[in-house]
Amino acid sequence: MKKIISVFAMAGLVFFATQNAQAQTEGIELGLRFGDNLGNNVGIEFAMPLSSNRLHATVDFGNFGVGATALYDWQFPFAEGFMFYPGVGATALLGSVFELGIAGDVGVEYQFPFPLTLGVDYRPTIFFTEGSHFGNGWGLNARWRF
Question: Buried-most residue among 41, 99, 111, 144 (CB within 10 A)?
Answer without folding.
Answer: 99
